[in-house]
């Protein structure tokens, strides 16, 4: 039994180390193993007193070296993993944002050709992306007035009670983080006071509708009315990414979800501002009844189906396994709509006078009820999945794709206005793969999560099976495109075949299929949505599908 355990452990340790280009420290290895299998390294079961003693007994797996007085562990590749080791070795550093956008478009345009013979000679490099919650916080911070760049971090800390977390998401400076959101926030140069941060939509209106061009280094003169308070826009909601936390791995997306206090204190002892009052219907009176604009029997709609063969920018929001994960479409308009929705919901529900009107009585807290929940002072659209106790319910995040247990007291009726935006989460499986041993191993799932982590990817749509989207995922931020199914195959975690086996995980539970209605467009033909990067011609669909993988064999059921 010890020998079998040691063999399994060697394979898991090699998988973790081979994915780390710079190697891991002893502490990092312990942390990653715990994250992968949810228990510590089995040192005592194998007769070892320390992690160092364990790795020194794996001379064919681990190379131990020293860097600045710290022990560094690196993988020794065998015949089956040399190819992946080369991918990691040639991993590129972070690319310039403008260059990356150009490169991504160029690679995406050639993806439909290269998918016929996928190549992946370079491991995917992390491209920093601010999560939607942080983007929405920046938008919220600047919604009332511009802020001096030098004061941003202080203002962020004062407004949200925590530091601006740009380093947490891979950015080396505040300037670099702001460049990643230059489509919505402009940096304007002022002669005496320094650079000023302004929301572009406000700046465009200030200069008579002439929008400032996007880019990382624009410096322009601020219009004369630069200091004037701007009204919070109340247009149709837009939002983007959500807690990556996510159901089974209850880790809130992008580090959100730590602080779960109800934000009612924000509006205490203050009058409701005029711009909040205009959201209340004329016939809404402050009484213990249910407000007339509260959603009670309606459901969200799903996004239109995507056409086979189209390329679409995506962010993977939540992963259970390569056969069960949720994506969110990454288009400029979709991102804006989700961000705006979050900002608007926070703006309205944070006022106690409003929030108390939408408290849900026990009779309304039933499975299938669409409502909203507060997490870390932000509000999210959720659907009640089950009632656990008098105090707790399990909810499904319709825009992010995961289940989470929350307090009943955090729930509120959803205002009718927030039904307009379709549910943004899309249930997905990786196309044409199956686990080599019947079920996905923890190491395979961990590798897949690392490949997806906090970056924009290109998805190549294959087909829908039982309401689940099967697609290929490709990282185009490297010198050559990296196809995730190929990486899993190279690591011997997956067999690549020529068909899509229905996901057993989604067969067991697919909350979107239970609670979300098909869009009107789904009732007709599949649509080529504006979200797509490029669309193959219909005549090429069958050729592309047949040629995607050379030598692919049908999967056995």
Automatic annotation (TrEMBL):
Subcellular location: Cytoplasm
UniProt-annotated stretches for the region Disordered: 94-120, 208-284, 537-557
Polar residues: compositionally biased ranges: 273-284
GO cellular component: cytoplasm
Protein name: Tudor domain-containing protein 5
Sequence similarity: Belongs to the TDRD5 family.
Keywords of the record: Cytoplasm, Developmental protein, Differentiation, Repeat, Spermatogenesis
Domain Tudor: 364-421
Chain intervals with Basic residues compositional bias: 94-103
Organism: Sakesphorus luctuosus
One of the protein's GO biological processes: cell differentiation
Compositional bias (Low complexity): 104-117
Comp. bias regions, Basic and acidic residues: 221-271
One of the Pfam families matching this protein, by short name: OST-HTH
Residue ranges of every copy of the HTH OST-type domain listed in the record: 5-77, 126-202
InterPro entries noted in UniProt: LOTUS-like, OST-HTH/LOTUS_dom, SNase_OB-fold_sf, Tudor, Tudor_domain_containing
């Amino acid at each position: 039994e010890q020998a079998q355990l040691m063999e399994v452990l060697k394979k898991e340790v090699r998988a973790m180390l081979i994915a780390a280009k710079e190697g891991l420290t002893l502490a990092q290895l312990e942390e990653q193993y715990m994250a992968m299998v949810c228990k510590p390294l089995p040192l005592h079961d194998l007769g070892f007193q320390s992690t160092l003693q364990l790795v020194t007994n794996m001379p064919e797996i681990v190379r131990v070296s020293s860097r600045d007085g710290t022990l560094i562990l690196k993988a020794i590749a065998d015949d089956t993993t040399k190819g992946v080791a080369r991918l990691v070795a040639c991993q590129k550093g972070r690319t310039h944002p403008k260059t990356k956008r150009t490169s991504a478009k160029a690679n995406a345009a050639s993806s439909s050709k290269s998918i016929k013979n996928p190549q992946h000679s370079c491991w995917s490099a992390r491209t920093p992306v601010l999560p939607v919650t942080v983007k929405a916080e920046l938008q919220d911070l600047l919604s009332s007035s511009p802020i001096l760049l030098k004061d941003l971090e202080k203002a962020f800390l004062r407004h949200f009670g925590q530091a601006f977390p740009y380093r947490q998401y891979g950015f080396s400076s505040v300037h670099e983080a702001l460049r990643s959101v230059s489509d919505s926030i402009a940096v304007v140069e002022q002669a005496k006071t320094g650079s000023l941060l302004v929301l572009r939509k406000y700046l465009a209106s200030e200069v008579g509708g002439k929008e400032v061009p996007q880019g990382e280094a624009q410096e322009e003169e601020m219009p004369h009315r630069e200091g004037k308070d701007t009204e919070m826009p109340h247009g149709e909601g837009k939002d983007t990414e959500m807690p990556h936390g996510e159901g089974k791995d209850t880790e809130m997306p992008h580090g959100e979800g730590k602080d779960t206090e109800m934000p009612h204190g924000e509006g205490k002892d203050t009058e409701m501002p005029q711009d909040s009052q205009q959201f209340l219907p004329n016939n809404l009176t402050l009484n213990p009844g249910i407000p007339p604009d509260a959603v009670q029997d309606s459901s969200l709609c799903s996004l239109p189906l995507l056409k086979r063969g189209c390329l679409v920018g995506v962010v993977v929001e939540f992963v259970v396994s390569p056969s069960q994960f949720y994506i969110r479409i990454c288009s400029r308009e979709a991102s804006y709509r989700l961000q705006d929705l979050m900002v608007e919901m926070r703006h309205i529900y944070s006022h106690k006078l409003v929030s108390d009107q939408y408290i849900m009585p026990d009779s309304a807290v039933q499975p299938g009820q669409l409502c909203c929940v507060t997490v870390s002072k932000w509000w999210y659209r959720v659907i009640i999945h089950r009632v656990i106790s008098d105090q707790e319910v399990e909810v499904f995040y319709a825009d992010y794709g995961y289940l989470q247990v929350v307090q009943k007291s955090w729930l509120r009726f959803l205002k009718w206005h927030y039904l307009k935006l379709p549910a943004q989460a899309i249930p997905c499986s990786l196309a044409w793969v199956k686990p080599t041993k019947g079920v996905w191993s923890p190491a395979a799932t961990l590798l897949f999560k690392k490949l997806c982590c906090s970056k924009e990817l290109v998805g190549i749509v294959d087909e829908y099976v039982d309401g689940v989207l099967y697609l290929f995922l490709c990282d185009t931020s490297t010198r050559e495109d990296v196809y995730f199914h190929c990486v899993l195959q190279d690591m011997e975690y997956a067999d690549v075949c020529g068909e899509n086996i229905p996901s057993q995980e989604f067969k067991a539970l697919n909350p979107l299929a239970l609670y979300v209605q098909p869009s009107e467009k789904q009732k007709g033909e599949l649509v080529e949505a504006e979200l797509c990067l490029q669309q193959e011609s219909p005549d090429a669909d069958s050729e592309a599908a047949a040629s995607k993988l050379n030598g692919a064999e049908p999967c056995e059921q």
